[in-house]
Amino acid sequence: MQLDQGSVAVVTGAGSGLGAATASRLVAAGATVLLADMDDERGKQTAEALGDRARFVHCDVTSPDDAEATAAAAAELGAVRVLVNCAGINLPARVLGKSGPSDLDRFTKVVTVNLIGTFNMIRTVSYRMSSTEPVTPSGERGVIVNTASVAAFEGQVGQASYSASKGGVVGMTLPIARELASFGVRVMTIAPGVFETPMVAALPEDTKRSLGESVPFPSRLGTADEYARLVMSILDNEMLNGEVIRLDGAIRMPPR
Q1: Catalytic site residue 162?
Q2: Above 80 in pLDDT, residue 106?
Q3: Active-site entry in 162, 173, 222, 251
Q4: What's domain 7-191+225-245's architecture?
């Protein structure tokens, strides 16, 4: 898919990390980008830094009203062609804690944001995509890229909620791609390994260094721009559909 000034992209979690890097690449490619984030200050700053073709909207991806408002705002800017779901959280907890069973609300929140929030944005934004004019001879109208994690395949101790939520994103990729195929909308998912994100930035330096060294090659943390570059490659290659791509330097996570 070739982006132009009439193309609109929605990026969730766009205030920082993977989302911000993706928004930057999309703007550079010529699209108008709607940056959706819960953090108003960070989101507005990122949008301002990206220039006139970037807009910010406050969005809680778990809210049906916010998702609908974001999709509507995107449609007002032009033809909605791209949705990249980067919003997510991680609240590690063991099933059995020192004082008893883990907090169920903690598990529910992670699944609600990472899995249900992703679906919430897909359902509202894809509806706008489905009514646009095709832009390729084969009838392509739009592309959706979701964010899973290698934790979907090799979840570590204490990551049950995160693994479950990302496994759900992996699991719904193909059925949604099959459904939206009749509308000319492709659906892909990226499963990053250990990347330089705000979640990782909060870790001690020695922990981050150890994580980077655990990657077979290159032995370092991935960068947000490497994720964004893969998003752009997915947009460019029309045969990529209904698949999950690991972006992980060949890492396979150990139990702990």
Answers
A1: yes
A2: yes
A3: 162
A4: 3-Layer(aba) Sandwich (3.40)
